[in-house]
Design brief:
By secondary structure, this protein is α/β, with parallel strands linked by helices. Helices cover 23% and strands 34% of the residues.
């Protein structure tokens, strides 16, 4: 039996889920009702599928530490999680091409590759595993296999797959791929009964995908092979060579290969599936009250109906309103009609035009060593709450334009401050003048929490000179 290597594709900004999804903390990391992220759920499914005890994750290098931290929450069921990091995003075709070449190099051209986007929600693991087994059988016969979701409505936000002759139980030849249709065309597809939604999940042998790329997307394959040849595999985590990978066309696997390939099959995805593509889809995960309202967090509703409200901290009060989306975070508030949930991406487009920071970051920003939250900021000052994980440390650094005052709230801080090295305990502090080389390390086994007060002519995040960093930044 050929090894089956699940490949988790993780990335994408998820602009329709702003203000929770941001560029620095995108959709796969969103916590669902119940507390788990989409990425964690996907990784668990991947580990259960692995025949070869290996799961490969392809993501941007900026998301490596966030992804690693999520995986630490996982019972990996004996699977080993490896990484292949992209220096820049180039869409799904280069990522999948790199995965196919990487798996072929390690396990041979006959190894099976199961591609799983990290932002899908699947409701029946047993049915999913059954569909994977059917897909693997077709893939071993040389087919490039996709998973088609039986449509439940005339959806215009998905591509469709038209199925042809049967190959086996729940497996059919792909007749054609169809772009996202208008409402009338989508209704015709539903009535025809031979169409399914294109889920974006795939299964194939590494060799079959490489051969298909050689015929239909040679420029993608050349760039991927050059990047892999120039990649330093001895350095962990493995990062694809930037100069070579940047030359890969920015193109999806559907356009590059699947719409052109000769041997294509579709497996019926007989399980609940969602790509959580909008707030309307996310709202469906929360049970409604008698008036059809769905609430995550703190809300008071008076004479309100069919609203979705999510609030991280503050109480949201809604009076006499209907069919609204209200999503409140610490630094941004979204209010929209539920029927226009897909248009949230237009907000992000406008914010990008003004380079607004809420496109990229939340008020709490995650780093390899922990996180920091900006509590208040004004002319010549900034106040942060900083959390440093056990055994972690900030880089050895200095600032040209600001001084810092650190007050330890809990845990223990080992501090380098210019020529001194000292231990700072709760209720103690240290002052770091501008220009002084400094570092904070948490030597304990609980989080070290400090309040940092910055003062100076400039308190931007880019006023930092890293002299040494264990995380390779």
């Amino acid at each position: 039996m050929a090894p089956l290597i699940p490949v988790v594709l993780s990335g994408g900004a998820g602009t329709r889920l702003w203000p929770v999804s941001r560029e620095a903390l995108p959709k796969p990391f969103i916590k669902l009702p119940g507390g788990e992220s989409l990425l964690l759920k996907t990784a668990r499914r991947a580990a259960a599928c692995a025949r070869g005890a290996e799961v490969l994750t392809i993501t941007n290098r900026e998301y490596y530490f966030l992804t690693r931290d999520e995986y630490e929450l996982l019972d990996k069921a004996g699977a080993q999680f490896d990484f292949l990091l992209e220096p820049t995003g180039r869409n799904t075709a280069p990522a999948i091409g790199a995965a196919a070449r990487h798996v072929s190099r390690r396990h041979g051209a006959g190894a099976l590759v199961l591609v799983l986007p990290a932002d899908h929600l699947i409701g029946d693991d047993a049915a999913f595993q059954n569909a994977v087994q059917k897909a693997a059988q077709a893939a071993e016969d040389g087919y490039l296999v996709t998973f088609g979701v039986p449509p439940t409505r005339p959806e215009t936000g998905f591509g469709y797959i038209e199925a042809g002759e049967p190959l086996g139980d729940d497996v059919r030849i792909v007749k054609r791929f169809v772009e996202k249709p208008d409402a009338a065309a989508a209704a015709r597809y539903i009535a025809a009964g031979s169409y399914s939604w294109n889920s974006g999940m795939f299964c194939f042998t590494a060799g079959a995908m490489i051969d298909a790329m050689r015929r239909h997307a040679p420029e993608v394959l050349r760039a991927v092979e050059a990047a892999l040849a120039a990649t330093d595999y001895d350095k962990k985590p493995v990062v694809l060579a930037k100069a070579e990978f940047e030359k890969a066309p920015d193109i999806s696997i559907d356009y590059a290969v699947m719409e052109k390939a000769e041997k294509r099959a579709v497996v019926r995805a007989a399980f609940p599936w969602s790509d959580i593509g909008s707030w309307s889809a996310l709202a469906e995960l929360t049970p409604p009250d008698a008036a059809g309202n769905r609430v995550n967090g703190n809300a008071v509703l008076v004479d309100a109906a069919r609203c979705f409200i999510q609030s991280d901290d503050r109480v949201v009060a809604a009076v006499g309103v209907e069919d609204l989306l209200v999503v409140d975070t610490s630094d941004a508030l979204l209010v929209a009609k539920r029927e226009r949930a897909q248009e949230v991406k237009k907000v992000v487009e406008r914010l990008k035009l003004s380079s607004h920071d809420s496109v990229r970051h939340h008020r709490t920003i995650y780093r390899p060593w922990g996180s920091f939250t900006v509590l208040e900021e004004g002319p010549r000052f900034k106040i942060k709450r900083i959390v440093v994980k056990p055994g972690a440390s900030l880089s050895l650094q200095m600032h040209h334009h600001r001084s810092e005052h650190w007050v330890v709230i809990s845990g223990m801080a080992k501090v380098v401050n210019a020529e001194r090295e000292l231990m700072v305990r709760p209720d103690e502090s240290t002052y770091i003048r501008a220009g002084a080389v400094h570092r904070l390390t948490n030597p304990g086994n609980i989080d070290c929490v400090i309040i940092e007060v910055q003062t100076g002519d400039y308190v931007g995040e880019d006023d930092i000179v890293r002299l040494e960093d264990k995380y390779g930044r």
